[in-house]
Amino acid sequence: MIRVAYCIGEYPEAERRLREETALSYASEEVEIGILPIEASPYQGLGPAEIQGVHPLMHKVYVRAEREGYDAVVPLGMLDLGVDGGRSLVDIPVIGPAQAALHVAAMVGERFGLICYEQSAIQRHRSQMKTYGMESWVVDYRTVAMPIRKMTEHRDEMTEIFLREARSLIKDQGCDVIIPHGISQCPVHIKPDWLSKELGVPVVEGIGAPIRMAALLVSLDLSQSRVRWPKSSMAKDM
User: Fold this and answer.
1) Reduced to 3 states, what is the DSSP secondary structure of residue 138?
2) Average of pLDDT values for 91-100?
């Protein structure tokens, strides 16, 4: 049995339960998923300063996951929080959800349409694509113009906007894969299999893709390169 730790921040109880249930739905006979808490919350939104401040908290959770015997660890959300440093702290695979989604998408298409929460986040997402060397794969960015905290109450409206923007990306710009750059859209509130059928193209989301990629790497006995991510001694103090 492959054990994957999934790290979830602080949310109102009902919102946290939604994310836990979604993550656990990707378990199988071969893959066990455990939930680890993080003392940080994206629920009110995260800007550049908040994102940087969360990294040390994520590092502690990655170290905890390894100490508790997990085979791999995945953070919640498409910001890939603490992933780069975490790969130097632990020997188990640390999988960034956005990075995983991008590479899975590259197996099923060539022209990606990304849909995120709000316009203010697009520049940050562009920077992330440059960092991952995937900028040329992304045709355009769209938004549902809605913060996380409003999505449960306005789920139907959010779904309608998402479908409209995705269809425009496909019809007007030739996108052949849609990536929800925000897990609260999909798969938390919109199921990816339903969405893919509605749109007629693959939809690659940020919970299932990283969890299953984590399990794949474990099954192949692969983890991060120590040439790229030299082992840090900081873990012993965490």
Assistant:
1) strand
2) 99
